[in-house]
Write a structure and sequence with these properties.
Chain lengths: 221, 246
């Protein structure tokens, strides 16, 4: 049993491949998370514009990409765009798909955070002469982010997990590399190793999230 | 009246179908303290908020310290520095210290360096008796202290006029005095003030003029003694009688 699922020799042989997958997963996360955060922030800032010509297209955009399964979006970009004469690599497709998908999620989180800041905060700032943008940057956003920190973190966790979708379009991230190693060694051990790595990588975030959530609950009491 | 520092004429304000201000004229002289009273919903807050254009009047004209507040060419952010505003709910920035609250606009609007802003901020906190609370966050301050920080935040910008919207209504009774004390010292320093409040004792001995509003109009105004002792309008009488019974 141990020989099958946790074979030391196979771990040794597969380790370089799995390790390169891990590095790619980290790299992918480091690109995709800031990209999504940035896109989300832009969406949330645009959503605070009251003009219906901005608001309605924006809401449609966010709804669309939240409803669209990210895997379908990814495959559509990867397999569909070439027919439009646009051949992007797997990596670029993942980045774009995640930007669209997680940006919409982050956007909703930021928006909720901005809405959670009382209007009196902006009024106080504006009454001292701060511009709309300054009031947003110095007064609203810091409070908004603090108020939705657990949700931001929780979404980030999902994003990191979702990077495993990259395996579908041959991005050599952790899951993809583990499967490569598995097919080379005819043994499931690399998959087990990948699972353990995912867990070890995300578990601290999960703990942190729990603590933040508990603190948020305590703060509300 | 010599040239008024606040000159608001024929102010109308509609919220959709609701006609909240129905042609209010308010002129305030330099160094004057005007007290605004009136029943809930009569438009007192809306009037104050129109003066610094937190609320956009539907029509009328507002000139503050020579600046036409409703002219689209007016740099409203620049103009607002000259008009301090103190809110019922303090509206301090909870993520900043008292000093941070006071210095934000000094740095970002008035363009002071951090050192200069800190110096002015400490001076403003000193004036409201909170020199030793500079590094406290709002959550660590009592309501009265928070409201005094809010006053410091306004006076640090050296405004020409201060607007107070029920500055003591959210305070426990024992904390009201400290805020009124600061307002009194501001008045003694010559600040022009427009105060919406139910603190009749303060109005009696600090106000130059009391303005009674009802249903979006100024019904009656005059020296405190006249308004409180011998109001001429029935509605003023009814209102004064009502609050004095409390
Ligand atoms: N943003 C708004 N949108 C719609 N209606 C509003 C708005 N602000 C105020 N009103 C309405 O305008 C009227 C006047 O409100 P305002 O706050 O100026 O009264 P007030 O005299 O300050 O009353 P209070 O003593 O209760 O503070 C009220 O009927 C109020 O409901
Ligand atoms: Mg009011």
């Amino acid at each position: 049993m141990i020989q099958t699922f946790f074979n030391i020799e196979i771990i040794a042989a597969a380790w370089p491949i799995v390790l390169s997958g891990l590095l790619n997963t980290i790299l992918l996360s480091l690109i995709v998370v800031p990209l999504g955060l940035f896109g989300g922030l832009i969406l949330a800032l645009l959503a605070s514009v009251k003009n219906p010509l901005v608001r309605w297209p924006l809401m449609a955009w966010v709804d669309f990409f939240r409803a669209f399964p990210p895997l379908v979006l990814l495959i559509l970009l990867f397999a569909g765009l070439p027919f439009a004469g646009l051949e992007l690599g797997g990596f670029a497709c993942v980045a774009i798909a995640f930007f669209l998908n997680t940006g919409a999620y982050y956007g909703e989180i930021f928006r909720a955070g901005i809405d959670s800041v009382p209007a009196g905060q902006v009024e106080a700032g504006r009454s001292t002469g701060l511009s709309r943008l300054q009031a947003m940057g110095y007064i609203v956003l810091p409070q908004a982010v603090r108020n939705v920190l657990p949700d931001l973190l929780s979404n980030t966790l999902e994003v990191v997990k979702l990077t495993s979708l990259g395996s579908v379009v041959a991005v050599p991230e952790l899951l993809y590399q583990a499967r490569q190693a598995q097919s080379l060694t005819y043994n499931p051990t690399p998959i087990v190793v990948a699972a353990i790595i995912y867990f070890l990588m995300l578990w601290p975030l999960v703990r942190l999230l729990s603590r933040l959530e508990n603190r948020a609950l305590a703060g509300r009491r | 009246m010599t040239k008024p520092i606040v000159d608001a004429r024929a102010i109308h304000k509609h919220f959709g179908a609701l006609h909240v201000l129905k042609g209010v004229d308010l002129r305030v002289a330099e160094r004057e303290l005007v007290f605004v009273i009136g029943p809930s919903g009569s438009g007192k807050s809306t009037l104050l908020r129109c003066l610094n254009r937190l609320e956009e009047p539907s029509s009328g004209s507002i000139v503050v310290d020579g600046i036409d507040m409703l002219d689209p060419r007016t740099d409203i952010n620049h103009a607002r520095q000259r008009i301090g505003m103190v809110f019922q709910s303090f509206n301090l920035y909870p993520h900043m210290t008292a000093l941070g609250n006071v210095t934000l606009a000094l740095r970002k609007v008035a363009g002071k360096s951090r050192a200069e802003a800190d110096r002015l901020g400490h001076a403003a906190l000193e004036r409201v008796g909170l020199a030793d609370r500079a590094e406290h966050t709002p959550g660590q301050l009592s309501g009265g202290q928070q409201q005094r920080v809010a006053i410091a935040r306004s006076i640090a910008l050296e405004p020409r006029v201060m607007l107070f919207d029920e500055p003591t209504s959210a305070l426990d009774p024992e904390l009201v005095g400290s805020v009124l004390e600061v307002m009194r010292s501001l008045r003694e320093s010559g600040m022009t003030m427009i105060v919406v409040s139910h603190e009749m004792g303060f109005a009696r001995n600090a106000a130059d003029r009391v303005v009674f509003m009802d249903d979006g109009l100024i019904v009656e105004q005059g020296p405190p003694a006249a308004i409180f002792e011998t109001p001429t309008h029935e509605r003023t009488r009814a209102f004064i009688g009502q609050i004095q019974r409390h």
